[in-house]
Write a structure and sequence with these properties.
Elements lengths: L1 E7 L12 H15 L2 E8 L9 H11 L5 E4 L2 H4 L3 H12 L5 E3 L9 H12 L1 H21 L11 E4 L4 E4 L1 H15 L5 H10 L12 H9 L6 E4 L2 E4 L8 H15 L14 E3 L6 E10 L4 E10 L11 E2 H14 L7 H45 L5 H28 L4 H19 L4 H11 E7 L2 E6 L3 H4 L32
Parallel strand pairs: 1-2, 1-3, 3-4, 9-13
Antiparallel strand pairs: 5-6, 7-8, 10-11, 11-12, 13-14
Helix pairs in contact: 4-5, 5-6, 7-8, 7-10, 8-9, 11-14, 11-15, 12-13, 12-14, 14-15
The structure holds zinc ion.
C-alpha cells in the first residue's frame, strides 16, 4: 500500500513536545523503513490545524480521493487535524474506502469502528494525548532502565540495537575504548592523550577534530562500562555486556583522581605541602635564591625552605635544602628495617599468605551473603513501593542507599579477589616500603626520592628552629625507636607517635 507522509508544525506552535519538521521527517522515514511502508509523497505544512483551510492538507486529501495513495503516515493524529471539520474529512474518507490506513509512530490506529472512535478522540483531544505521550515516553524510559537497558544513546563502544531495542557491544569500537582505558591506567596520561588516541583511531567530533577533554574524562569515569547505569539520579544494574574489568576501571579512576588533584606550587620543590611551621602553623614553601660570585663570574642556585607566614607574624628563619634532606634521611633511618631481615620476613609473609587464602574464601563467602541480603532488601523495597506502602521519594533515597552499599560490597569482593586480604597486602606493602626506606636512606638520592620517602613514613612534618619532626604513619610509628631530632628539641618523643590514618594492622604471626 502506498502512503503519503504528512508533517506539520506551525510557527505559532510553542509546544516543545511537538517535534520539529525535520525531526518529524526523520522519524517518519525511519518508521516507514521499519514498518516497510512505501511513501509516494512527502507533504510538509507550516500552518496551524486549529482552523480549517490548509493548502497542503487539502492536497493530501485530493491525492487520496484520486487514488494516488491509500494511506497517510503522520507523527500523531494531531498533526493531521485539530478541528472537527478536517477530522471529519479523514473519517469520511475511511468510511467510503478511499483511505485504507493511517499510521502514526505514536498512536495505534486500526481501521475498525473502535479505531475510528479512538481516532476521533485523538483529533479532538490531541493536546491531552500529546501530554500523555510525553509521560509515556518518560515511563517507557524508566521501564527500560529498570530492566537493565540503557534508554538513551549508547556510550562509545556500544550501539543501540534497533530491532531488539537493547544495548550491544560494537566490537570495532570496543577495542578502541578498552585500549584507551589501558593506556590511561598505565599512568602519567592526560585527557588530551586519550582524546588524541581516540582521534588516531577514528573517534572524533563531527567536525573531524579530536573529542573534547570533557568527553575523554566522562568516558573514563563512566560506570556504564562496568555495568552500572545512573539514570535520572538513580542507579540501575545494566544488562549489557561489559568489556572493561572492574580492576582496569578502578585503576583509571585512581589516575583521574591524580589529575584532578590541584598541583602544588609552580616549581618542583620536593618538600612543598609536606611540612608545616610549628610556631605559626603556616605551610613551609620552597624558594630559589640566586647567588652571584664576582670572583668566578658565576651565579649559583640555592634552594631554601621557609615558613610562608601567611597566618600570623612568625620568627622562623629559612632552612637550606641540604639541611632539610639530611634530617629526612635521619628520620627515615630511624624507622627503617634492617636489610638483613628482609629474607626472613618474606618467608614469614608467604606463610601468612597461605593461611590467609583460606580466610579470603571465608571473607568472600560472607560478602556474597551480604550481597544476597541487599538484593532481598531491594526487592522488598520495590514491593513496598509498588503496593503503595512506600512513598516515591523515600523509595528513591533508600534504593540509592542500598544500591551504593551493594556497589561497595561488590567492589570489596573484587578487591579481595585481586588484592587479597585487608591486612596482609597493606602489611606487605608496608614492609616493602620499610625495607626500601632503608635502602633509599642509605643511598645518594634526589630530592624527589627523599620527598617521596618522607611521604611514605610520615603523615605530617613540623619545622621549628630549623629542626624537622615527623608524625609517623601507623606502622612506622612502631618501628620508630631512638630517633631524637636534636638534643635540645622542645618536642617530646611522644609527639612522634602516629595518628591512625593508614588503617594498617600489625601482623598477627610474623612479628
Ligand atoms: Zn611560621
Amino acid at each position: 500500500m502506498k502512503y503519503i507522509a504528512y508533517c506539520r508544525k506551525s510557527t505559532d506552535e510553542k509546544d516543545k513536545q511537538v517535534l520539529s519538521i525535520d525531526q518529524q521527517l526523520a522519524e517518519l522515514t525511519e518508521f516507514a523503513k521499519r514498518e516497510k511502508l512505501e511513501i509516494v509523497n512527502f507533504v510538509v505544512e507550516a500552518k496551524t490545524a486549529k482552523t480549517p483551510g490548509r493548502e497542503k492538507f487539502a492536497e493530501v486529501l485530493k491525492l487520496i480521493e484520486r487514488g494516488v495513495a491509500h494511506g497517510i503516515l503522520s507523527w500523531h493524529p494531531d498533526r493531521l487535524a485539530r478541528n472537527s471539520i478536517d477530522g471529519g474529512k479523514i473519517i469520511y474518507l475511511l468510511d467510503i474506502g478511499k483511505l485504507h490506513d493511517l499510521k502514526f509512530p505514536t498512536f495505534w490506529f486500526d481501521n475498525t469502528p473502535q479505531g475510528k472512535f479512538m481516532l476521533n478522540i485523538a483529533f479532538g483531544q490531541s493536546k491531552y494525548y500529546v501530554d500523555n505521550l510525553s509521560e509515556n515516553v518518560v515511563r517507557g524510559m524508566r521501564y527500560k532502565v529498570k530492566n537493565g537497558i540503557w534508554p538513551v544513546r549508547a556510550p562509545l563502544g556500544y550501539f543501540n540495537e534497533p530491532k531488539l531495542r537493547t544495548i550491544e557491544v560494537n566490537h570495532e569500537k570496543e577495542k578502541i575504548v578498552k585500549k584507551a582505558f589501558q593506556l590511561f591506567a598505565e599512568g602519567n596520561k592526560s585527557f588530551t592523550d586519550i582524546s588524541n588516541f581516540l582521534h588516531k583511531n577514528g573517534v572524533a567530533r563531527r567536525n573531524g577534530k579530536p573529542v573534547k577533554l570533557e568527553f575523554a574524562k566522562r568516558m573514563l569515569s563512566n560506570r556504564f562500562y562496568v555495568g552500572i547505569m545512573k539514570y535520572a539520579g538513580e542507579y540501575y544494574e545494566g544488562k549489557h555486556k561489559t568489556f572493561i574489568t572492574r580492576e582496569l576501571f578502578d585503576k583509571a579512576q585512581k589516575e583521574i583522581g591524580k589529575i584532578l588533584k590541584p598541583k602544588q606550587g609552580k616549581h618542583n620543590f620536593a618538600f612543598c605541602g609536606l611540612i608545616k611551621c610549628r610556631e605559626c602553623g603556616a605551610s613551609i614553601t620552597g624558594e630559589i635564591h640566586k647567588k652571584y660570585y664576582e670572583r668566578t663570574d658565576r651565579t649559583a642556585d640555592y634552594i631554601y625552605y621557609r615558613c610562608t607566614k601567611k597566618i600570623k607574624p612568625c620568627s622562623q628563619k629559612p632552612i637550606t635544602k641540604d639541611y632539610l634532606e639530611e634530617q629526612i634521611r635521619l628520620i627515615a633511618k630511624s624507622v627503617s628495617l634492617p636489610l638483613e631481615w628482609e629474607k626472613e620476613w618474606q618467608g614469614l609473609l608467604s606463610e601468612d599468605e597461605k593461611l590467609e587464602s583460606v580466610s579470603i574464601d571465608q571473607n568472600i563467602g560472607r560478602l556474597e551473603l551480604e550481597l544476597q541480603q541487599l538484593d532481598e532488601k531491594l526487592n522488598k523495597l520495590l514491593d513496598g513501593y509498588l503496593e503503595g506502602v512506600i512513598e516515591s521519594e523515600t523509595y528513591k533515597t533508600k534504593k540509592n542507599e542500598l544500591f551504593e552499599e551493594k556497589v561497595k560490597v561488590q567492589e570489596d569482593i573484587s578487591r579481595i579477589k585481586s588484592e587479597g586480604s585487608s591486612w596482609l597486602e597493606p602489611f606487605k606493602e608496608f614492609t616493602d616500603s620499610a625495607f626500601s626506606v632503608s635502602k633509599i636512606a642509605r643511598a645518594k638520592n634526589t630530592s624527589q626520592d627523599l620527598g617521596n620517602l618522607a611521604k611514605t613514613v610520615g603523615s605530617n612534618f613540623f619545622l621549628e628552629n630549623r629542626l624537622l619532626s615527623p608524625i609517623f604513619k601507623k606502622g612506622f610509628d612502631t618501628l620508630f625507636s631512638e630517633f631524637v631530632p636534636h638534643a635540645n628539641s622542645a618536642i617530646p618523643p611522644s609527639k612522634f607517635l602516629s595518628v591512625d590514618d593508614e588503617g594498617l594492622e600489625p601482623p598477627t604471626s610474623s612479628v
